[in-house]
Amino acid sequence: MGSQKIKPIRGFRDRFPDDKILQEYIFATARSVLRRRGFEEYDGPLLEPIGLYEGKTSNELLTEQAFSLIDKKGRKLLLRPEMTPTLARMVASQADQLVFPVRMFNIGLRYRYEAPQRGRNRELYQIDFDILGSDSVLADAEFLSTAVDLYKKFGGDENNLVVYINSRSVLSKALEKVGISSEKIPEVISIIDKRDKLAQQDFIDLLDAKSVDSGAILHFLDNPKNYKDNFSDLLEAIGALEIDSYIKVKPFFVRGLDYYTGLVFEVWAKKGLNRAIGGGGRYDNLVERYGSRKIPGIGMAMSDTAIIEFIKENRIKIPDLTPSLSTLLVTVFSRELASKSFEAIRFLRKNNIPCELYAGIEKLPKQFKYANKKGLDYVLIIGPDEAMEGKVTLKTMTTGEQEVLTLENVLSKLSTRIIDK
Amino acid sequence: MGSQKIKPIRGFRDRFPDDKILQEYIFATARSVLRRRGFEEYDGPLLEPIGLYEGKTSNELLTEQAFSLIDKKGRKLLLRPEMTPTLARMVASQADQLVFPVRMFNIGLRYRYEAPQRGRNRELYQIDFDILGSDSVLADAEFLSTAVDLYKKFGGDENNLVVYINSRSVLSKALEKVGISSEKIPEVISIIDKRDKLAQQDFIDLLDAKSVDSGAILHFLDNPKNYKDNFSDLLEAIGALEIDSYIKVKPFFVRGLDYYTGLVFEVWAKKGLNRAIGGGGRYDNLVERYGSRKIPGIGMAMSDTAIIEFIKENRIKIPDLTPSLSTLLVTVFSRELASKSFEAIRFLRKNNIPCELYAGIEKLPKQFKYANKKGLDYVLIIGPDEAMEGKVTLKTMTTGEQEVLTLENVLSKLSTRIIDK
Questions:
Q1: A20 at the B interface (CB within 8 A)?
Q2: Could you tell me which residues come within 8 angstroms of residue B4 by beta carbon, excluding any fewer than 6 positions away?
Q3: What is the pTM of this model?
Q4: Do the chains contact at B289 and A356, CB–CB below 8 Å?
Q5: How far is CA B46 from the centre of its chain?
Q6: Which site among B46, B47, B374 would you substitute to test the A interface, given the most A Cβ atoms closer than 10 Å to its Cβ?
Q7: Which residue, A363, B148, B166, B298, shows the most beta carbons closer than 10 Å to its own?
């Protein structure tokens, strides 16, 4: 075979260590916050039968955005576009064993067959978390408080974040009161859901085209008056949990997923991004569609890329991240003296100094260059003189300082670098 | 839509929290060991063009075991069966930027279209790690020392583990010396590779069928005499690194992957399992096939399930693992008194006590049952009496002991439970 450049398929990408470590930081942080609040990690297949989604998730997601594939036996399978149907199946299958309300989370891959020109990835990661088995306002409040806490860990605060809440059923009732006939309400709601993305006149035209009183709707949306009162129980709980400064009732969004039954919410970044960086809602009738009794649920998803954009846009300070944890390079002076380097690295590792052996025979400057590029703080040299004396030379990369030491001396000098877990 | 039981597709499975936390422990441990030794995590697409593998990986893997799918445009894609080709592509694409030798690792999904009757999963996780850019014996020794260190972290020792090493090129030369003609050597090697799985007579019959002197080969395999000398440089380095007690030269295995060029190795569990629980080798000509200059490499893969089986078979003690980290349930006495529970949980969380709010209005015994089943150590109760006094009742689940305390008292009592990272 000759040599060939082979690229990833469209919408997929390779992820080098500098990218991966940032993602891993996001995941480790989310995992820690969620586990401390009693959420438990689960996972499911990446490839699912299409029946898992048909009639359950949104039709748009299924027909336009799903990444569908045909297997060797001609069956249509989906690379999972979202996690909720998999979770609902799992909870339905264990409905008699689980102790409700269960708290579950997943961190994993999702797939969308996005139009390539939008520059969107077709392979993406999401963090999903859910509470199932309670339709109480307490579940809603505990859930939203978890969401806010999670975003706070990524630098979110009242100035840069807002959580919009709404409910399809509340909105339907309000529109009925404004005089919209009930058969027109689904269409009107789907137009209202797009309000933020439409010019005012286009919005009016769309409503007029459905012979709907656009004036009445505009008036309602701009003066939602007592609309907030529909959420008074939740707002009270949210106030008691001291997250009310993040939450805002917004009548004109409902989110597209067909399985939402009540509360829906979206987390928006106020600055720069001007878009939702996470969202979810209540799905009280989904689990039973997988063959169990009725088990209500509430959940949300957030992508790592949205969180990373949020961190960058708001210049949030995060810890220094390095893909490698090694701090010292044991160089190899020559083939003959390699055994001295083996001896040194064995000693340092036994004492939990994170370090690496230069994996070849090269001139020292090349080995120093490696240490430098990799950001290692120290280099250890054992040449003929050091070998004769039973010592080593420790070079500090930042200062260039060199000291001739015993290995025991090196160890005490590097005692703060020990990682023993 | 009616209610339907929908199962995962064949060879795929749902993973509940008790499974997932064990897997996560394996991954976190491996990540920590590898990063301390200078390895950096990368990732790549799960779905790859078939051209990434054709003529590079083993033909058996590609034609019989690959999980191939057809996309919407009729293209044949593979759910990645292994990670090395993806890594080789990545390294080739950045050959001018990377500082060699690079140390890379990946933890992720792989797919095999295994015959279902074998009860094997078609979706599996593997930990892969590699050193690229050096063909030195120092790279081999550093690599094997990393592998041994990793298995040691999972309870491996000289008594329960052995690492077999061999080399296709060394074996070829040895067979030539025994008098096997060079054109027969590839066939003979593939028979020798199966020796452990064959009855003695079947092994002899297979060799005889190829008109090969089976007596000479048996004699060679049973008395490999100086065969070990071919690995003397490596064995010397391994001795200096003090991992020689794990390593054994074994002339009759070569591993199937077509890209291996030199050293190959397999980690075997000595007890019970009697099979390889990890393996790899040197692939010095693979990266250049993706369009770069020659960049030699050495790598291995191990699956989480093999490590878990090893841990169970050898009764290795691992830390207590609980999917959730929460330690205390704040119960809700009634809708009216919910605000007191909100207040309590707000206080405890502000002080980094990992805890959860019962997400509904239920009778207390049901809430206690939840705490009990979830393994929570404490339950907090705020009924009318406690509310009046400005106190809470803390119940210790193991003893049943109940104390009426202020929230401050609860905090000092639970000070060892604080998680503030």
A1: yes
A2: A51, A289, A290, A291
A3: 0.95
A4: no
A5: 17
A6: B47
A7: B298
Q: Which of residues 86-125 of A touch B (CB under 8 A)?
A: 86, 89-90, 92-94, 99-101, 103-104, 109, 113, 123
Q: Measured between alpha carbons, how far is residue A94 from residues A90, A98, B412 in Å?
A: 6, 6, 38
pLDDT of residue A271: 84
Mean pLDDT along residues B13-35: 97
CB contacts of A325 in chain B (<8 Å) are 32, 35-36, 38
Contact at CB, A93 and B345, closer than 8 angstroms:
no
Closest CA to A359 of B91, B145, B283: B145
Amino acid occupying residue B284: D
Work out the angle at residue A188's Cα, subtended by the Cα atoms of residues A187 and A191, and round it to the nearest 5 degrees.
90
**Of the candidates A370, A341, A371, A377, which has an alpha carbon nearest to the alpha carbon of residue B137?**
A341
In whole angstroms, give the CA distance from residue A412 to residue A234.
Answer: 57
- Where would I find the beta strands (DSSP E) of B96-191? 102-111, 123-132, 161-167
Q: How does residue B381 score in pLDDT terms, banded at 50, 70 and 90?
A: very high
Report the pLDDT value the prediction gives residue A332, as an integer from 0 to 100: 98
Distance between CA A213 and CA A176 in Å, rounded? 12
CB contact under 8 A, A237 and B342: yes
**Is A332 in the B-facing interface, judged by CB distances under 8 Å?**
yes
Nearest CB neighbour to B68, from listed A72, A77, A133: A72
Q: Specify the pLDDT at position A119.
A: 62
- B176-215 residues touching A, CB cutoff 8 A: none
- As a whole number, the mean pLDDT across chain B is 93
Residues 26-55 of A with CB under 8 A from B: 31-32, 35-49, 51-52, 54-55
pLDDT (average), residues B394-421: 94
- Shortest CA gap A182–chain B (Å): 22
User: For chain A, what is the mean pLDDT?
Assistant: 93
Q: In what helix (H) or strand (E) does residue B265 lie, and over which residues does it extend?
A: strand B263-269
Nearest to B323 by CA among B368, B367, B376: B376
Name the H helices within A13-136: 17-36, 59-60, 84-93
**Interface probe, candidates A22, A25, A138, chain B, greatest B C-beta count within 10 A:** A138
Query: Which chain B residue lies closest to A286 (C-alpha atoms)?
Result: B3
Give the span between the Cα atoms of B215 and B37, in whole angstroms: 46
**Residue B197: pLDDT above 90?**
no
Beta bridge partners of residue A128, listed in sequence order: A106, A301
pLDDT in tens, A230-241: 999 999 999 999
Q: Does A360 lie at the interface with B, CB-CB under 8 angstroms?
A: yes
Q: Detail the DSSP E strand segments found in A50-132.
A: 67-70, 76-79, 102-111, 123-132
B282 class by beta-carbon count within 10 Å (0-12 exposed, 13-18 middle, 19+ buried): buried
Q: In chain A, whose CA is at the least distance from the CA of B146?
A: A356
Binned at pLDDT 50, 70 and 90, residue B118 comes out as low
Cβ neighbours of B133 in A, within 8 Å: 359-360
- Nearest residue to A92 (alpha-carbon basis) of A66, A56, A68: A56
Average pLDDT over residues A71-81: 92
Task: Say yes or no to pLDDT of A115 above 70.
Answer: yes
State whether A44 and B291 contact (CB < 8 Å).
Answer: no
Record: contact A9-B360, CB cut-off 8 A: no
| pLDDT attached to residue B117 | 64
Which of these, B65, B121, B156, B143, lies nearest to B301 by C-alpha position?
B143
pLDDT on residue B173? 92
Query: Which residues in B28-50 are b (16+ Cβ under 10 Å) and which e?
Result: ebbbebbbbbbbbbbbbbbbbbe
Instruction: Give the ipTM.
Output: 0.95
Phi and psi, residue A221, nearest 5°:
-65, -35
Q: Give the closest-approach CA distance of B208 to chain A in angstroms.
A: 33
Q: Which residue has the higher pLDDT, B322 or B274?
A: B322
